[in-house]
Amino acid sequence: MQGKLHQAAATYEKLIQAGGQAPILCLAYYDLATIHHEWNDLQEARQHLEHGLALSQRSGNVELFLRGRETARSPRSRS
User: For residue 58, which of 3, 29, 43, 65 sits 20 to 30 Å off, Cα-Cα?
Assistant: First the structure.
């Protein structure tokens, strides 16, 4: 399982680098936050969550923003 999380994290990071500020990338940030929380890297998890929330807020897309709020409230992502 751990190897798959590393692979997923690397994929999300590549997407973020390639995608710039596309609003849909907030989902990659949220998933990275969840992965880093799983690894008990709470500071990194919080940073990814905050980047995702900021990106979704700038886009004005309420659904993307609410998904980030859900991520923040889930037991896996609390830090």
Answer: 43
Instruction: For residue 73, count other CB atoms closer than 10 A to its CB.
Output: 9
Per the structure block, which two tokens stand in for 7? 């692979």
Rounded to two decimals, the pTM is 0.85
pLDDT at 77 over 70: no
Placement of tokens 């709470």 in the chain = 42
Q: CB-hemisphere CA count at 13 Å for 65?
A: 9
Q: For the segment 6-51, what is each residue's pLDDT rounded down to a tens digit?
A: 999 999 999 999 988 899 999 999 999 999 999 999 999 999 999 9
| E-only strand ranges, the chain | none
Q: What gap in Å lies between CA 52 and CA 54, rounded to an integer? A: 5
CA distances from 79 to 4, 6, 68 (A): 22, 20, 14
- Cα separation, 2 vs 78, in Å, equals 20
